[in-house]
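User: what does the whole thing look like in 3D?
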Amino acid sequence: MTRGLLLFAHGARDPRWALPFEAIVQRIAARAPGLPVRLAFLEFMAPTLPEAGDALVAQGCDEIEVVPLFLGAGGHVRKDLPELLARLRQAHPGSTWLLRPAIGEVDSVVDAMARAALGHSN
Amino acid sequence: MTRGLLLFAHGARDPRWALPFEAIVQRIAARAPGLPVRLAFLEFMAPTLPEAGDALVAQGCDEIEVVPLFLGAGGHVRKDLPELLARLRQAHPGSTWLLRPAIGEVDSVVDAMARAALGHSN
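Assistant: Here's the predicted 3D structure for the full assembly of 244 residues, as structure tokens:
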């Protein structure tokens, strides 16, 4: 079983928008150097989720965790993402695709945001 | 000088989308019980930023920190938010309005998201 991580973000017209997402990828690469990680976008930016998923499979991954880099889970996470994931499951039935909760719903992330909003860095 | 915290999020049609944002407010209230905090939305949800800002001033706040609860800083943070903030500054010249960086650009939050994406809770 070769694990891979597929991070799914919204995308925006302004390229500076992607900076925190690229920082997350770098931080993951530093913590887990051997782990295949790809960032994908719903719109405005490349690659798409199916493209990034194809790339992970081509890299040999057969157990792929999909992490929505969204603060809240609305239509993009509850509707658009499952539809895109269904395409990947159909194209790559030999791989397992696990959908994880939106990153903003993870307790440790909520806690970090509350501390940061208060101006505390840790 | 009475400090207040104004948290600015995007908003969505699905009311469940707001859950992590409400959790942040609760976490802040637990950490800083006396601090006035209001959550405001760009669209789909109430109150708006001007409404929530008015409420903080009515509550006696004259130094208000505005924290964008956005992962990336694109058009909403770089263009829409400063325009809304200009309205508040004009309506309440006796208060200081400080614009903070997008929450997703804060290093400790990037770190928490990277750990959470890897499946580590702390």
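In plain terms: The two ends of chain A are 36 Å apart (CA to CA). Helices of chain A lie at 19-31, 49-58, 75-91, 107-117.
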